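Pasting two entries for a bug report.
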Amino acid sequence: MRSFHLLATLLFTLGASASPAQESPSYSFHRSISAFTEYSNTSSHIILGVSRNRQVISLGFAVSQRLLHSRYLNWYYAPEVLPLVLIQDPVATQTINSSGSIFSQSEPTAIVCKPTVENVPPNPAIGFPGYIFTRTCATRWSYAGGASPLGQRINLMPRSRIQTFVVGNAGFLVSTHDIPVNDSSRFNFTFEFGSGIEFFRDHHHSWTAEYRIHHTSNAYIGHNNPGIDSQLIKLTYTIGR
């Protein structure tokens, strides 16, 4: 009888050690809602845009729906709504002063604005009176709002509390006046892509920091289309289940 108990104990121990270990739960939202802010200090030619020195500040909301869940990745549909987008444009004011007659014009410029004072002397032989040309630089803020309904995001290592991800999105912006320059368009298309890190505080809350390259242009529905390429830093807080 004692030998039977020893054999039973040995078999139970071997069976327990051979059974698969219980998998740790993954950090993955089936559905979620997020609030985020974005900032870009300047713009330059990265993809297609040529407008320079544009600052961008955005506030928005996003929802996500998980499309695929596996051991190695999660794939989400993640559209975004942007009720507040502020774009700072450089504005050049050019003034010509000729014999007391002054002509002045102000407009946003796609290139870097440089203050200038130039004295063009008169030429009496042809009756040219000469003039003083002055360029001064300032900025203006433009308000826009829009949505990006094509958002896709893939998170890697879903069992980890800290996850890396890649993201892509596309949509539109509507502004109160033409951006980024006059005679362009109040309606602009957008697309962006990037990557980031998501930190899960628990299974229902997370913080995200990411970097995106963002493009805005009107696809030549306006007369001018210099476009804006921005490098965005984005911070997001998410609640999910």
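Entry 2 (this is the one that rendered wrong in the viewer):
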Amino acid sequence: MKDEVKFSNFAETGQYVVSFDLDTFIRLFVNHRPVYGIGKPHIEKAFDTFLAGDKSLLSETLIAKMMRDGD
């Protein structure tokens, strides 16, 4: 999935993608998550863990955390 984003514009621009917006993150999540077995409670628990209690997360902060912690 990381390579899909990294090389998504390479043919047109010759450059790698090094950052992306929240819409791209959501599109990737929806398209690459398992179809069965993960529901809203699982997603909420994952975000609670990821946010560590900070419920007022800005999209820029989320993206920064994903770039730093996510893989």
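Dev reply: Rendering is fixed now. As a check, the viewer should reflect this: Residues 2-69 form one domain.
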